[in-house]
Amino acid sequence: MKSIFDIFKIRKDERWLAIVSALIFSFLNFMTVYMYWGRFCALSDNYHRLFVRWFRISGFDPLTYEVISYWDTAYNVYRHPLLAFFMWPFYQLNQLMMTLTGKNFSTVITALIIIFCAFYSSIFLFRIFKEIIMVKKREAYLLTALTFSMAFIMLSAMVPDHFIISMFALTLTLYLSGKKLRNGSALNMWQTIAMFILTAGISLNNGLKVFLAALVTRRKRFFEWRFLLFAVILPSAMIWGFARWEYRTYVWPKEMARNEVKAKKNREYTEKIRLQVRDSIGSKDSAAVEALTKKIKQQKAVEKYRRDHKKIWNKNTGKPIAKGEFMRWTDKTTSRWDVAVECLFGEGILLHSDYLLGDVLRNRPLIVKYDTSNLLGYINYLAEAFIVIFFVIGVWMGRKSFFLWTSMSFLLMDMLLHMGLGFGINEIYIMSAHYLFVLPIGMAYLFKTIENRKRRSVAIYTVCALTAVWCFAWNIVNIIGYCL
After folding, report:
1. Spatial separation of the C-alpha atoms in residues 442 and 284, rounded to whole Å
2. Helix 15-40 and helix 137-149: axis angle, to 10°?
3. What angle do CA 157, 390, 473 make, to 5 degrees?
4. Residue 425 contacts residue 331 (beta carbons within 8 Å)
């Protein structure tokens, strides 16, 4: 038990990083709380409507506010099977605060959770750079700073969504895996189970990354029948079975109630049209009345379809690969190149000042370009290019590292889902905290390879430092401007 808590102790060489990180993340979350406290501190009889209606930071969801205000499985239970239950103690704390003050402290409590997860994500990343890849301390500081200067990692560290919580679990998994690889050992059964429950409980697809880490550290031993059965198959079956139980217990009754309300409204709507038809044609021929009623309903349905088709959320959604429960969320038509340049490595790293923090489901086009009518737009494209190029070079130079390929497996899995199949491709930058931290990890191998070549090392360090400063300055100015 002591060794579990030791990992959260701040070491002497991490104190400055800890102080700076705590100050920055506290400031970012202060802005969010300041922005929404006046509206969200009031008690309500419908928190979902309150938060979803008024929260406006890109496409992030304020569901954590809702769960901490009035506990329910508001998250998608198949994607986040345990997240609502992880939030239950914080809901109890908020209930106590509500009783004592008559105010809803969900924004403040959520901010504390986000600060904790962002803080330790930065600590674990710093340790990865310094202890696992073994770059110099100044490079470790720089790469950590570069990671959290990226736009949607910075935003994830200040919004009430699950992404920074996932990043905390993923960086912890990578750090533990890296230590095992350095020591020549492997993730054992209980470590794998614990990390899978934590990570998959937050976001189910990320749980697969724990198995990828176990595969790299254990190699052939991953396929031992005891490990496969007790650390992979049974936990996967249990968490999926729990998600199914959660759906039947909490979600299905509400869906049935909504469907009944919808059916009732549809019957009332049909009867209203039927009465209008009967009055207009003056006929008591029920067959004629029903035929005309059906025709009018079909015409109105077509008109609604045409109106919806013109709405921005429909324009920003490509055609799915196939129809089905899950495949209907895929996308085969959206341009992968445009998304890569302007969203994946664009908006994810540097915010676009046009449609700043807009939502593709409300008011933002899918593809927004940097304004190249002035020098700033070109600088943004150049900074993006530097990061991607240095990452690619670093991957090549570290291609023999098992730890690098553990990290790369995390990135490649997300790229298969988002860029390959098209899941969530229309707002891929929202998921940046799941994978963008792999870019500085790849870049670390570039620093490690050239550490004895002073001129090259100084030149690349300088370019990376300037890029990090530019990303932080550009993003923080835009974020502050938006919040104020």
Report:
1. 77
2. 10
3. 40
4. yes
Residue 418 phi/psi, 5° resolution?
Answer: -85, -50
Q: Which of 222, 172, 225 is nearest to 197 (CA)?
A: 172
How would you classify residue 424: left for phi > 0, otherwise alpha for psi between -120 and 50, otherwise beta? left
User: How far, CA to CA in Å, does 113 sit from each of 38, 119, 364?
Assistant: 20, 10, 29
**By the 8 A CB rule, do 247 and 78 touch?**
yes
Measure the CA–CA gap between 153 and 58, rounded to whole angstroms.
13
How far apart CA 64 and CA 29 sit, in angstroms, is 14
Which residue type is seen at 438? Answer: V
Give the integer Cα–Cα distance in Å for 380 and 471. 8
Integer-rounded Cα Rg, in Å, for the chain is 25
How many angstroms separate the CA atoms of 430 and 59, rounded? 7
Query: Whose CA is closest to 67, among 57, 77, 58, 59?
Result: 77
- Best CA proximity match to 332, nearest among 344, 319, 350, 316: 319
Of the candidates 400, 279, 359, 427, the one whose C-alpha atom is nearest the C-alpha of residue 55 is 359
Give the Cα separation of 94 and 70 in Å (integer).
9
Residue-wise pLDDT tens digits, 393-444:
999 999 999 999 999 999 999 999 999 998 889 899 999 999 999 999 999 9
| CA atoms of 253 and 73, how far apart (whole Å) | 12
Residue with tokens 């419908």: 46
pLDDT for 333-345, tens place per residue?
A: 889 999 999 999 9
Report helix, strand or coil for 111.
helix
Q: Would you call 214 helix, strand, or coil by DSSP?
A: helix
**Which residue carries 């030791």 as its tokens?**
6
Contact between 273 and 301 (Cβ < 8 Å):
no
DSSP-derived secondary structure letter, 203: -
Please tell me the chain's helix, strand, coil percentages from 3-state DSSP, rounded to the nearest 5.
75, 0, 25
pLDDT band at 284 (very low <50, low <70, confident <90, very high): low
Residue 453 has what DSSP assignment?
-
3-state secondary structure (DSSP) of residue 455: helix
Beta strand residue intervals within 252-372, DSSP E: none
Question: 368, 352 in Cβ contact below 8 A?
Answer: yes
Beta-strand ranges (E) seen in 190-234 are none
CB atoms within 10 A of CB 419: 17
The token pair that represents 418 in the structure block: 């988002």
Query: Beta-carbon neighbour count of residue 200 at 10 Å?
Result: 25
- Taking the whole predicted model, whether its pTM rises above 0.85 is answered as yes
